[in-house]
């Protein structure tokens, strides 16, 4: 990771913070993008671009181009920005499906489209998306979320095929992630079976590394201990 420029979306969230911290500890330069406002001043090693709606293509391009201008190049895009909703199909609201599509599919699509011209100029261009194991077979209440994450899976495969030989594109598919929010929502669950943010970060950063140069179009499940 030393010297690589990483764009991390959703950088102020539970997963984004861990991924960026681990990457920085290994010498990476971080351009963080988030919907929430950022109060951190830019430095030669880090810039946070807050207040960005990545479901809007123009805003995504402006933020990515700003990151590229700050560092002079981009090497890796990690699409973590997203959202979750639990709602049954019959009793739910169509607006939930639209919101999940915007938060999970459009954010990854718009940021990838904005970053790809920059990544193609790198000797090691990488995109890592966040899918979901729950999108492989949706259960009750998981329809809107699973459908949107399935869209991320197909986006990953399409981009990997279209940019083969120029940029690798892969996705990690976590099971339930051990965050404060998930523990609050499922207090009786066995947290020991959940994937930790640190474990997820390790897989993400492997896919972003030189060691993963031969891996593209992969959907990699993470977690789900027995």
TrEMBL record:
SUPFAM superfamilies linked to this entry: NAD(P)-binding Rossmann-fold domains (SSF51735)
Pfam families named among the record's database cross-references: adh_short
Listed CDD domains: DHPR_SDR_c_like
Family to which this protein belongs: Belongs to the short-chain dehydrogenases/reductases (SDR) family.
Protein name listed in UniProt: SDR family oxidoreductase
Biological classification of the source: Bacteria, Pseudomonadati, Pseudomonadota, Alphaproteobacteria, Hyphomicrobiales
